[in-house]
Amino acid sequence: MDDSRLRELIPDVIGVLVRRGADFASAEDAVQEALVKAVETWPTDPPRDPKGWLVTVAWRKRLDLLRSQGARQGREIAYDLEPPPGPVPSADDTLRLYFLCAHPSLTSSSAVALTLRAVGGLTTRQIAEAYLVPESTMAQRISRAKRRIAEVSLDEPGDLATVLRVLYLIYNEGHSGEVDLAAEAIRVTRQLAAVVDDPEVAGLLALMLLHHARRAARTDAAGRLVPHAEQDRTRWDTAMIAEAVEILQAALARDRLGEYQAQAAIAALHADARRFDETDWVQIVEWYDELVALTDSPVARLNRAVAVGEADGAPAGLAALAQLDQALPRYAAASAHLHEKAGRLAEAADLYAAAARAASNTAERDHLTRRAARLRPAAPADGC
Amino acid sequence: MAKYLLLKHYRGAPAAVNDVPMDRWAPEEIDAHVAYMNDFAAKLRESGEFVDGQALAPEGAWVRYDGEGRPPVTDGPFPETKDLIAGWMVIDVDSWDRAVELAGELSAAPGAGGKPIHEWLEVRPFLGAPPRVTE
Questions:
Q1: What ipTM was estimated for this complex?
Q2: Partner-chain contact B92 A225, CB within 8 Å
Q3: Structure pTM?
Q4: Which among A95, A106, A110, A122 is positioned nearest to A28, based on CA atoms?
Q5: Yes or no, beta carbons of B48 and A365 under 8 Å apart
């Protein structure tokens, strides 16, 4: 049985249960139990209507839970036993679940964990493994998040921007162990895009696909980072790029620009170039101008300075960079790159070394250290 | 979320404000200290921020490679001059500020006279493994 197809049904099923009056925590527990049952029985006895099967079994499981907790009077249970006839599961149910899991009252880490569990259908163990924490730690995070949103009114309108931010956080974790969080984020964002008609959802999906399509080329066989200019473009997934560009163009045509669409447009221009020196940097700078106007993000300004360096030459890039705060993350790395491009190699080496010390992950640190070393004269081999 | 290491030192950190060696505390002061540390870890487990924690024995040695076919060199047990790690805790929290807040709380563990030790703790971010998308 295809595990991911089963998991795709989860947000719908939880949504139906919540719509029928179950509170979120018990609905989520009941659906997890129904999934276990599905994994046991479907291989030998596949249902004709998998979603209907899951709704029915989860509803019964929920009643079992209520009974065992003794939390309801008999007449309430009798009333509960027959599932109400309507309404037909609607997109709203699924959407409400996204809003609940990414509720602004939750910390980012709680929202991420809850979304992966309730919307993505991952087990607590899988989520814990992806984030390299003990399972008990992740279980606590999830149950605290569930307790917190138990107080949230279902009528409260959700915040789509928060949902998108949570999904992008998940994408950016990108572990590839048993669970590939980047692929998981794409899967869940696809589902969201199917139920909510908003150009920014499409923009985020396109952005993730564009990054994902180039993922294989971003590291070499030894796990070293390969800089953009040196990537083997035959390793890019052109079908995925084409799909992303189509999604993005449809979104842009609606003329409601947002930050994810702008970022995706930049990524699309990178993906569109057959060779690095065919990259349309002038247009990329224009999109960065849009992005800066939309977000006023210092990181966007930093990336813009690097793009200016490609479009108008290293001195122009350094001039753009000089207007920014040196304390920005990756400032030294950007500065090193532009100094190298300008032929100021000794300064570039020092800046690469400084950037390596400030790096937040080992692959980046090692990459920057190699860049610094490449620009310096070799040390005597006998020194130690 | 990011992981941080909280390092406790026997030696090597600046002296604590309430700097009395543990073997000169009253037994009930030691009990209070241990209870505080256990409560602290339990609270982090409950909040979903705990990753790992271990205490280290003070005994140990420096060891290094001494060339092909030769046994590694050790320089023997730690002398008075060496840094000494007493133990660590790994936490997984939302921000640097939260890591500092928790380290401050850990540093307030009670010591001699039942007063906080005010010991210096080292806080270090872990380097992540996967590269983030940056372009």
A1: 0.84
A2: no
A3: 0.87
A4: A122
A5: no
Structure tokens at A136: 């008990």
Among A110, A360, A366, A367, pick the best mutation site for testing chain B contact (most B Cβ within 10 A). A360
Neighboring chain B residues of A364 at a CB cutoff of 8 Å: 131
Cβ neighbours for A126, distance < 8 A, ≥ 6 positions apart? A178, A179
B125 in contact with A, Cβ within 8 Å: yes
* Structure tokens belonging to residue A286: 């224009």
Compute CA distances A137 → A133, B41, B45, B117, whole Å: 7, 12, 6, 28
Percent of chain B with pLDDT over 70: 95
Are A131 and B127 in contact (CB < 8 Å)? no
- The pLDDT of residue A76: 56
Separation of alpha carbons A123 and A32, rounded Å: 8
Report, in angstroms and rounded to the nearest whole number, the Rg of chain A calculated over CA atoms.
25
- The verdict on B38 touching A (C-beta cutoff 8 Å) is no
Q: Name the closest residue on chain A to residue B135, using Cα atoms.
A: A303
The answer to whether the Cα torsion of A195, A196, A200, A202 is positive or negative is: positive
Take residue B97 and report the two structure tokens written for it.
Answer: 């500020």
Residues of chain A with pLDDT under 50: 87-88, 383-384
Closest CA to A337 of A366, A378, A301, A302: A302
Identify the residue with better confidence: B129 or A302.
A302
pLDDT higher than 90, residue B70: yes
Contact between A201 and A189 under an 8 Å Cβ cutoff? The reply is: yes
CA A272 from centre of chain: 22
pLDDT of amino acid A115: 95
CB atoms within 10 A of CB B36: 18
pLDDT at A384: 47
CA-closest candidate to residue A152, choices A14, A9, A311, A24: A24
Q: Which residue has the higher pLDDT, B57 or A156?
A: B57
Q: What is the pLDDT of residues B75-104, one digit of tens each?
A: 877 777 778 899 999 999 999 999 999 999
CB A260 within 8 A of CB A207: yes
In angstroms, the CA A182 to CA A186 distance is 6
pLDDT of residue A214: 95
pLDDT score recorded for residue A383:
46
d(CA A158, CA A101): 10
